[in-house]
Structures are given as C-alpha cells and as structure tokens.
Amino acid sequence: MLERTRIVLVNTSHPGNIGSAARAMKTMGLSELYLVAPLEFPHPKALEMASGADDIVNQAIIVETLDEAIHDCSLVIGTSARSRTIPWPLVAPREAAAKIKQEAANAQTAIVFGREQSGLSNEELQRCHLHVQIPANPEYSSLNLSAAVQVIAYELRVASLDESSLPQEEWDYRLATADEMEKFFNHLQEVMIEIDFLKMNAPRKLMTRLRRLFLRTRPDVMEMNILRGLLSAVQEKK
Ligand code: SAH
Question: Which strands sit side by side in the sheet containing 75-79, from one edge to the other?
Fold first, then answer.
C-alpha cells in the first residue's frame, strides 16, 4: 500500500518544509512525492532538512496543477485543520489510513497537503473524496506542514503493519480516476448550462454540491460511461 500512496504538497513556500516532509515520508516507508508549483525548488535548504531522505527530494515530481498531481488516483484525501462552509466527508487520520489501505492494494491513492500560510483552497479540497483533520488542540490546530505529513505518514505505516485488515472489496470495474471525474464534471456543467439549469451568475453552489454527491458515490468506469452517455444524449436532443 505504501508504494501506491502519493504525498502531494501544494504551493509550498519554504523549501525546508519540502525536505522535512521527505524525511517524514522516508521514515515511514513512503517514497512518492509530488510538488505542485513549489515557490522555491530545487533549493539547498530542502536537501539540508531532508537529511538522509535526499533521494525522495531528488525524485520529487514537479507539476503545475493539483489536477496533474492526482490525475491517475482513484482515492484522493485532502488534509486541512479548518472545516468548511459546505462540509466535506470528514475522517480522522486513522480512518483515512484504513481507507487507503483498502484501496491502495490495486489503485493509486494520494494525500494532499496545503500551503503554509493559507492551507488548501475550497476548490482544491473539492477535488478530494475525503477531508482528513488531525484532531489537534481546537485553540491552536494548525500543525507545521511537515509535522502534518509525519502524523499522516505514521498512521499509514501503522495501517500497513496491521495484519487484521478488512477483506478487499470485490468489484467488476475499477473506480474512476480523478482525471475521469473532472472530465465528467466538466461535461455535466456544460450540459447544465446548455439546458439553462445552471445559470453562470447564480450557481447556488450547485457544482460544489454535485461534486460532493458524485465523489461520495465513487462511480466506477462503467457507471461513468453510462453517465457520460446520458449527458451526450441530452446534448443530441437539443
Ligand atoms: N493556515 C493554514 C494552515 C496551513 S498548515 C490554514 O488555515 O489552513 C499547512 C498544511 O498542513 C495544511 O494545509 C494541511 O495540509 C496540514 N495541516 C496542518 N494542521 C493540520 C490539521 N490539524 N489537520 C490536517 N491537516 C493539517
């Protein structure tokens, strides 16, 4: 499971945090690090803080957008200390690790971490299936980025060592990836605009709510094909 669990850091400002996160990962047996538009990277501070985990820093994959970092993942978990106006399915780190364990046996998964100053935007969290919150002191709940990576990575490690795991769920088709979900959401939005169900100036958080609905149901590729076919049929009827 650990080799199929990617750590994604979004827009990190301090290269030292990237190095510390790499060290946190390596101590727990994780190795795949994606950096979404880091502010300063490569940087000697990253290697300095990584200590012996410079291999992880050097192999880190740099991408421009969160979508690129998670495109092939069928389970994406976002980390944030803050709760949001439209709540997202919330889990504790242990539960998140159990879900990853169940999924990562045959699919790619990712855990996404936000910026030091402002965390993850709503839009970024809405790319995720689940929101994981580390149950910290409610009066001071924001951990340093690499400390948050360490806590989550530790739970993943403990889950990976646990032999009493849940049986693998049997399913006929694989679950849709983040990329397939995004294509579906774009198509859905396009159709809703075409039939005047979604008015661009009064969206009533409609897309957010629909995203939450479909991310919660976790469609497989066959279900996704049916939904895409249905949308195309609506477009042809117009
Ligand atoms: N001020 C920011 C916090 C940034 S901390 C905010 O308001 O969101 C940097 C990152 O560490 C966060 O984006 C998140 O990925 C992780 N993090 C810090 N504390 C956390 C917590 N209690 N639960 C989950 N993730 C946390």
Answer: 61-63, 32-36, 5-10, 109-113, 75-79, 130-132, 90-91
Mutate which of 13, 17, 39, 80 to test ligand 1's pocket (most atoms within 8 Å of Cβ)? 80
pLDDT of residue 24: 98
User: Which atom number of ligand 1 is nearest to the Cα of residue 78?
Assistant: 15
In CATH terms, the fold of domain 178-237 is Helicase, Ruva Protein; domain 3 (1.10.8)
Residue written as token pair 């995203």 = 211
Apex CA 23: angle with CA 162 and CA 144, to 5°? Answer: 95
pLDDT given for residue 103 in this prediction: 85
Distance CA 16, CA 197 (A): 48
**2-161 adopts what CATH topology?**
Alpha/beta knot (3.40.1280)
Q: Does the pLDDT value for residue 203 go beyond 70?
A: no
pLDDT at 31 over 80: yes
Choosing from 20, 39, 145 the residue with most ligand 1 atoms within 8 A of its CB, the one to mutate for a pocket test is 145
Residue 104 has pLDDT above 90, yes or no: no
Cα 10 to Cα 65, 88, 112, 178, 224: the distances in Å are 8, 19, 7, 16, 28
Model pLDDT, residue 169: 73
Counting atoms of ligand 1 from 1, which one is nearest the CA of 141?
22
Distance 145 CA to ligand 1 centre (A): 6
Tokens of 128: 């995720």
Q: Where are the domains of the chain?
A: 2-161, 178-237
pLDDT above 90 covers what percent of the chain?
A: 90
CA of 66 to the centre of ligand 1 (A): 17
